[in-house]
């Protein structure tokens, strides 16, 4: 009698990168073919079941071409044999916002309802690491499992993965691409044996799982490989992910705990690909802009509009509009840019031309929606009719759920030859302002009820501080116009005092900053450091013997007004124009890249703001913004999604691998909006805006905090890197990943006592830097009906951050999500807007959990890393 054989569970599946080394359309015809073949194989019983890669966008993409397949797909999905979801796309879940991930899961849920069923397993097999808050997010959708691979600790095949707030998922660490194990009867017997031996060794407690699939492949059905399996001592049993997880959880004993993000260096061929955090930063910046526009401005204004409409029209139906549908369309485009090969910048140039267009389309829709929502309140931002001559009104809009004061910059259009001579708030008080540029041109406007109109005008870049803006509300300001005014006095100087700072521009365009209240001097703040990069879109790879290059100052201008102090630094970055043909040295011929750095200190603020424009003309290098930090510090702290994360300060780069198919540790990390080192007078924080790659590292006797501005590389993937000793994708040239041409980025620095990451005021300042106030010129002769948005038309939150205020998924009402990202508990107060008649606490997926007592004010005690989702009805 033969020995009873161990079960090896098999899940046949495909991993479908929607776009990567081909464009979306270059893949889609194949996807339609694949889905039809899978349906046929399910009909014939060749597969017991099939996993359609955890992303419902596949259904959307196929049904656009073949709507006739819907009933057939729905039948297989409803029966549980074809499994889809729980995601709409397999995002790089570190590079998009928490709310982007929520919208992704909500969208998949709609597809689950439409097609009959959604997989309940948190499947994310290929993402290049995972954020600390993923277990919390999955729990918020009723999911308590995860399947991950890259970034998971290789020593743990199964573990309890725990978010900072204590949310937890039962996690399986499993590579997803074992197609070859069952592929060819002639060659794969030994592969199957090897696979079984390796897996038994990795998890002696079992059960074994073989993910029979790969990238863009139709896997061979497992049935005809039973004989080979018997030779390897196992019986192949087809199962679904859901059933496998139930069995694996039941079999698990003494599971290890893994807390926080998954960014551990992997074993052979399990690459983390950390260079994708900075490949094509223009892709990340475009995503940040549109995500911010949707989350901070469009969704809150739509929620406010709905609430106001429900009060105003009591008894009569609201005027029909397409706002929700337009919002949904914009999110659809943004989410289609979130897959790991899209947002990571590691696809072909053709693909990224398309991601750029998608981001632009979403931005245009969002911009139109925002202006339409303001127009519904009588705030008309269309520049039509006789241009302003005596005065011009502007509106400033907040994207924050707490009252804020902050810098506002608006493009103000006037009759040609007119200048701004004064600025008043709605109460008539004169407030400081600056016009930093004026340009002559024509303004054009047309709309459904406005004839096309083109006028000669001047456009002035007007800056001022908008004080005490209501939560998610707006205020108007009036610019007085005249014929002559004096601009800010500009001096050629490298030194200026501003507030508590003494600022001096050094030869390399960085700053020596002295805090005059403490005497502490920070030397080399905002140093722009270029290093040679012989890598690819996946990994930074330093050029041997290369020394970092710094810019040199050409000219500095200083201006100082009641409003702000500005240093305008004109500099040049001279770099080797590329790496050499041997790819082992940098070319001798130098090339100059012009660099324009403006450092602004707004009166009464704690931060110095950098706006940096580089016209990049050099290939094969990485440019970072660096600031020295306390050399004895061990830890740096940053936000990601809804939590504050601590990470160790170590070497910039780990040891280079000496064997094939391995990767060097490169401890860069994804950051949402701020990072800091230390507390007290020596502390330093960087506030970022759409630049996710940050690192704090030790360099000899010093330490620096660095954010990557761009990484210029010419290859999708290479096989000859030192930091990753084989390819990570096809070896294709991607000249546009060299990021040649102008790029503008914004970074702010907070020094000394202002660095308090547990303090809601610090967190609010970082949020405001990441999502600045929006400002629009109003239509000439059409002032807003009042000086500010109506009171109590939006929730106002103090003591915590607002992650979202959006229309609810189900008809009526809105969703308010607030977070306490810090390690300390927080007391939050929510002023409930007028017209809200019920408040319910809900899961992240908007499923109600419990009714809360209704009052004008709601007090919430948030635990460390707490997150609360409220349904306002
Ligand atoms: Zn992939």
TrEMBL record:
It comes from the Bacteria. InterPro entries: Gal_mutarotase_sf_dom, Glyco_hydro/deAcase_b/a-brl, Glyco_hydro_38_cen, Glyco_hydro_38_cen_sf, Glyco_hydro_38_N, Glyco_hydro_38_N_sf, Glyco_hydro_57/38_cen_sf. Transmembrane segments: none annotated. SUPFAM superfamilies: Families 57/38 glycoside transferase middle domain, Galactose mutarotase-like, Glycoside hydrolase/deacetylase. The keyword Mitochondrion does not apply. Keywords: Glycosidase, Hydrolase, Metal-binding. One of its GO terms (molecular function) is metal ion binding. GO terms for biological process: mannose metabolic process; oligosaccharide catabolic process. Residues 276-359 form the Glycoside hydrolase family 38 central domain. Belongs to the glycosyl hydrolase 38 family. This is Glycoside hydrolase family 38 central domain-containing protein.
């Amino acid at each position: 009698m033969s020995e009873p054989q161990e079960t090896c569970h098999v899940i046949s599946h495909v991993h479908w990168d929607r776009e990567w080394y081909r464009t979306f359309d270059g893949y889609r015809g194949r996807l339609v073919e694949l889905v039809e073949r899978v349906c046929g194989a399910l009909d014939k019983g060749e597969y017991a079941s099939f996993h359609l890669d955890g992303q419902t966008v596949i259904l959307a993409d196929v049904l656009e071409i073949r709507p006739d397949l819907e009933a057939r797909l729905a039948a297989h999905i409803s029966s549980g044999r074809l499994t889809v979801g729980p995601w709409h796309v397999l995002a790089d879940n570190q590079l998009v916002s928490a709310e982007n991930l929520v919208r992704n899961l909500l969208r998949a849920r709609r597809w689950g309802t439409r097609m009959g069923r959604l997989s309940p397993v948190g499947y994310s097999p290929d993402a290049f690491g995972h954020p600390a808050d993923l277990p919390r997010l999955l729990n918020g959708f009723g999911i308590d499992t995860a399947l991950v691979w890259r970034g998971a600790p290789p020593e743990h095949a199964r573990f309890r993965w725990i978010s900072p707030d204590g949310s937890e998922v039962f996690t399986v660490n499993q590579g997803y691409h074992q197609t070859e194990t069952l592929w060819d009867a002639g060659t794969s017997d030994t592969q199957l044996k090897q696979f079984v031996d390796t897996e038994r060794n990795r998890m002696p407690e079992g059960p074994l799982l073989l993910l029979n699939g790969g990238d863009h492949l139709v896997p061979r059905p497992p049935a005809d490989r039973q004989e080979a399996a018997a030779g390897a001592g196992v019986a192949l049993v087809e199962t679904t992910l859901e059933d496998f997880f139930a069995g694996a959880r039941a079999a698990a004993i003494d599971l290890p705990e893994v807390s926080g993000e998954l960014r551990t260096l992997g074993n052979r061929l399990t690459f983390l690909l950390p260079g994708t955090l900075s490949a094509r930063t223009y892709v990340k910046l475009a995503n940040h802009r549109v995500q911010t526009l949707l989350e901070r401005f469009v969704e809150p204004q739509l929620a406010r509009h709905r609430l106001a409409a429900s009060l105003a029209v009591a008894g009569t139906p609201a005027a029909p509009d397409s706002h929700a549908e337009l919002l949904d369309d914009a999110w659809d485009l943004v989410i289609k840019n979130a897959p790991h090969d899209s947002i990571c910048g590691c696809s072909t140039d053709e693909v990224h031309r398309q991601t750029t267009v998608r981001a632009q389309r979403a931005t245009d829709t969002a911009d139109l929606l925002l202006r339409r929502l303001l127009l519904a309140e009588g705030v008309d931002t269309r520049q039509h009719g006789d241009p302003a001559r005596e005065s011009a009104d502007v509106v400033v809009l907040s994207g924050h759920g707490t009252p804020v004061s902050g810098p506002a910059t608006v493009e103000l259009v006037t009759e040609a030859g007119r200048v701004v001579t004064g600025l008043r708030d709605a109460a008539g008080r004169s407030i400081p302002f600056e016009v930093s540029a004026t340009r002559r041109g024509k303004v054009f406007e047309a709309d459904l009820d406005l004839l096309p109109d083109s006028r000669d005008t001047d456009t002035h870049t007007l800056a001022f501080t908008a004080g005490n803006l209501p939560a998610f509300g707006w205020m108007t300001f009036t610019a007085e116009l005249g014929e002559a005014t004096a601009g800010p006095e500009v001096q050629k100087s490298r030194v200026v005092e501003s507030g508590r700072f003494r600022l001096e521009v050094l030869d390399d365009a960085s700053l020596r900053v002295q805090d005059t209240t403490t005497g502490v001097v920070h030397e080399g703040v905002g140093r722009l450091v270029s290093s040679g990069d012989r890598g690819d879109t996946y990994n930074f790879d330093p050029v041997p013997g290369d020394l970092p290059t710094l810019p040199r100052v050409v000219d500095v201008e200083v201006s100082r007004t009641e409003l702000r102090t500005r240093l305008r630094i004109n500099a040049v970055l001279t770099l080797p124009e590329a790496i050499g043909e041997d790819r082992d040295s940098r070319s001798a011929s130098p090339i100059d890249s012009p660099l324009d750095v403006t450092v602004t200190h707004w009166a009464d603020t704690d931060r110095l703001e950098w706006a940096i424009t580089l016209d990049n003309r050099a290939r094969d290098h990485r440019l970072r913004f660096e600031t020295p930090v306390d050399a004895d510090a061990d830890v740096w702290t940053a936000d990601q999604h809804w939590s504050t994360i601590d990470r160790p300060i170590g070497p910039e780069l780990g040891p280079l691998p000496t064997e094939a198919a391995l990767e060097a540790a490169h401890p860069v990390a994804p950051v949402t909006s701020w990072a800091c080192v230390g507390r007290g007078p020596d502390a330093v924080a960087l506030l970022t805006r759409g630049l996710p790659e940050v690192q704090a590292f030790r360099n000899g006797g010093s330490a620096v905090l660095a954010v990557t501005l761009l990484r210029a590389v010419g290859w999708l993937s290479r096989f000859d890197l030192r930091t990753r000793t084989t390819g990570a994708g096809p070896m294709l040239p991607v000249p546009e990943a060299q990021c040649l041409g102008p790029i503008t980025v914004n970074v702010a620095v907070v020094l000394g006592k202002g660095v308090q990451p547990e303090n809601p005021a610090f967190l609010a300042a970082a949020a405001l830097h990441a999502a600045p106030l929006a400002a629009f010129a109003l239509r000439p002769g059409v002032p807003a009906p009042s000086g500010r948005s109506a009171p109590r038309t939006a929730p106002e939150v103090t003591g915590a951050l607002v992650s979202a205020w959006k229309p609810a998924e189900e008809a009526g009402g809105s969703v308010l999500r607030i977070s306490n990202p810090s390690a300390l508990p927080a007391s939050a107060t929510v002023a409930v807007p007028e017209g809200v008649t019920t408040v319910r606490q809900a899961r992240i997926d908007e499923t109600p959990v419990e009714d809360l007592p209704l009052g004008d004010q709601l007090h919430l005690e948030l635990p460390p890393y707490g997150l609360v989702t409220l349904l306002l009805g």
